[in-house]
Amino acid sequence: MGNEILNEAENYTIRRISGGEEDDIFQQLSELDKICIGAEGWSAESFRSEAAKENGIVLACFNGERLAGLLAGYTAAGEGDITTAAVSPEYRRQGIAYRLMQEFFSLLPEDSAEVFLEVRESNIPAIELYKKCGFKQVGLRKRFYSQPEESAVVMKAEKNNCGDIK
Ligand SMILES: CC(C)(COP(=O)(O)OP(=O)(O)OC[C@H]1O[C@@H](n2cnc3c(N)ncnc32)[C@H](O)[C@@H]1OP(=O)(O)O)[C@@H](O)C(=O)NCCC(=O)NCCS
């Protein structure tokens, strides 16, 4: 793949996953998503179908051979959308999610002016991550999530402000 970043000092590699890869990687992505997000985590099939879409972006961060983090999203009609992000508990607070966000923004097409996402109102780590990446709250969707029921904070970043990500 052309989208490989290697941080040799920390042995982290971020790689864009394509739809044609081995089942094993999609299984690993699904397992990590479910560990981090719970029952709402994506299935292996969902990751594969997202990666296979022309406008889908699925990123995986490896520490050596080990999957440490993931981020998925897509672009459509001049917008980007982040649909899931997860970092394995033992790899948190090392900047992996931030680096995955940087990579996502770098892959957005020219015509993507804004990026949106939804996040559980109580998910302070994720909300803080997104704020650090230039997102601001633009709405609240009442009772958007179930199990447990919770509102979703809707956040938006202007692509130009995503340049704040360094
Ligand atoms: C949210 C999540 C992806 C962050 O991953 P991470 O790799 O630990 O995040 P980073 O190390 O890149 O942190 C970047 C910034 O996010 C914020 N942040 C991350 N974790 C935080 C925490 N526990 N408390 C407060 N702020 C936090 C900080 O601003 C941090 O910058 P800093 O370390 O310089 O203070 C991770 O906690 C996770 O997988 N959570 C469970 C799954 C989830 O909630 N996904 C999001 C669904 S919308």
Indicate the topology.
Layout: E1 4-7, E2 12-16, H1 23-37, H2 44-52, E3 56-63, E4 66-76, E5 79-87, H3 96-107, E6 114-120, H4 124-132, E7 136-145, E8 150-158
Parallel strand pairs: 5-6
Antiparallel strand pairs: 1-2, 2-3, 3-4, 4-5, 6-8, 7-8
Helix pairs in contact: 1-2
Bound molecules: coenzyme A.
Number of strands: 8
Name the strands of the widest sheet in spatial order.
Answer: 1-2-3-4-5-6-8-7
Percent strand? 35-45%
Bound molecules: coenzyme A
Q: From the coordinates shown, what is the CATH architecture?
A: 3-Layer(aba) Sandwich
- What is the helical fraction, as a range of percent? 25-40%
**What Rg, in angstroms, do the CA atoms define?**
15 Å
Q: Classify the secondary structure makeup into a structural class.
A: alpha+beta
Q: Do you know the CATH topology? A: Aminopeptidase
CATH superfamily: Gcn5-related N-acetyltransferase (GNAT)
At the first level of CATH, the class is Alpha Beta
SSE order, one letter for each helix or strand: EEHHEEEHEHEE
Shape: globular
Uncertain segments are none
Indicate how many domains the architecture comprises: 1
Average pLDDT over all residues: 91
The termini sit apart by 23 Å
Give the biggest beta sheet: 8 strands, mixed
